[in-house]
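During the second year of the project, the team shifted from modelling isolated chains to modelling whole assemblies. The rationale, set out in the original proposal, was that interfaces cannot be judged from single-chain predictions alone. As a representative example for this report, we include one of the complexes processed in the last quarter. Its constituent sequences, exactly as entered into the pipeline, are reproduced here:
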Amino acid sequence: MHYDAAETLSRSEIEALQLSRLRDTLARAAHSPFYGALFARHHITPDTLHSLDDVRRIPFTAKQDLRDSYPDKLLALPVGEMVRMHASSGTTGTPTAIYHTREDLDWWASLMARCMHMVGLRPTDVFQNMSGYGLFTGGLGIHYGAEKLGCLTIPAGAGNSQRQIKLLMDFKVTGIHIIPSYAMHLANVLREMGIDPRSLPVRIALVGAEPYTEETRGRLEELFDMKVYNSYGLSEMNGPGVAFECQEQRGMHLWEDAYLAEIVDPDTGEPVPDGELGELVMTTLGRRGMPVVRYRTRDMTRFLPGPCPCGREHRRIDRLHGRCDDMMIVKGVNIYPMQIERVLMALPEVGQNYLIVLDNDGAMDRIKVQVEVRAEHFAEDTRVLTALQKKIASRLRDEILVTPKVELVEHNTLPRSEGKAKRVVDNRPR
Ligand code: AMP
Ligand code: ZN
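Output from the structure prediction step:
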C-alpha cells in the first residue's frame, strides 16, 4: 500500500530522524565556501543543535545568497562528483544553480515515485509528462520519478497541443503531469478539434509548478473527468517531490524525512503560530552535493492542523497562496492574484484565462481584470454581457475590497506563455 518505509513513520520517528539528518546536513554543508564562512561567523556546528528548535539559531539563506554564490560556492563536494545541474526559472537577474550527485538524483527520484504511488499511479500506467524539459525541474524531475515507479513514460515536453493529444490517444495515457494554465488551454484545443476531453483515458493528473485555486482544480477534474493532485516543489529543494497531495486531496504532505520545514512571518522571520499563514522556510535533509539550510522560499502557506485521514504523519501544507512577491498593493489594500482567480473560476460563464493589469493615472492605482468569456456566452447580447461584467466586478469587490474595472474578452485571446502563466502586468511607475 505504501511505496517506502519513510512514508509511514510516526511523528516521534520523523522528528528523531530530522534531528540526526539536520546534524549531518550541517556537517556536510560546512564544506561549501558559502556555509563554511557563514557557520564560522556565527559559531555554528552540528553540536549547536540539541533539539529541532535550535535550527532557529542558524541564519536564513535567501535567494540572493544563492545568486551571490553562483555558480558553485554552495558545493559541499568536489564538482567531479556532481552529475547534473538545474537552474531556477527566475526571469530577472543572475540565475541560481543547483547541483546533484548521482545519489542525490536517486533520492529525488524516489521521493517523486513515492508521490506518484501515493495518488494511485502504478507500473501499469502510461504517463505523459507535458512540462518543459531542460533546466526546468518539472521535466527531468517528474520523468525520473515516473520511470523509477515503473510507468511507461512519455517525455512529451511543453506545448505543441496537437502532438500532445495524438500521444495521449495513441498510447492510451492514464497519468499526466501538466501545469494548470496549460491544462485549461489543452481542454480548449480538444474541444475545438471536436474531441470531448472526458473521452480521453487519462485518470490521474499531477498539477503544479504555479499557483491555482480549488475552483480551478474542480474545473479541471470536471473538464477531463480525472483526479487532479496538487504538486509542489522548487529547484532550490530539487524540484517537484517536496510536498504532494494524497488521495484525500486536503493539503499536501511535505516529506519531512527529506526536508525540515518552518513557517515564518515574512517581515520578522519569527515562527507564526501553528495553522497561520506565513513564508515557508526549508532545509534539505538528504542532499549531499549541495545542501541548502533554512532557505526562504518566498512561498506563502500554512501548516494544516490535525491528522490526515490517510494516516500519514508527515505534516500537510495548504495550497500555496502565491509568493510574498506576488502580493499586489492596490490603493493600500493587499491582494493576491489567487483571490481573483478563486472568484473568476467559480463563475460558469468565465472561460479558462484571465489577466490582471495595474496602472496608475498619476493620482490613483487602477486595477483592471481582463476575463475570457466562454464561447457560448460571448455570443449573447450586450445587455447580458454588461450584467455579467457587473456581476464579476461586484464579486471581486467582495473578495479584494476594491472595485476593479472588468473587461470581457473572447475566449483564447489573452496571451499565453508556454511555461508558467503570467497573471499580472504592473504598469505603475516605480
Ligand atoms: P522553480 O524553482 O523555477 O521551478 O519555481 C518554483 C516555484 O514555483 C515555487 O517556489 C512556487 O512559487 C511555484 N510553485 C511550484 N509548485 C507550486 C504549486 N503546486 N502551487 C503553487 N505554486 C507552486
Ligand atoms: Zn494524507
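The chain has two domains: 1-324, 327-426. The mean pLDDT is 95.
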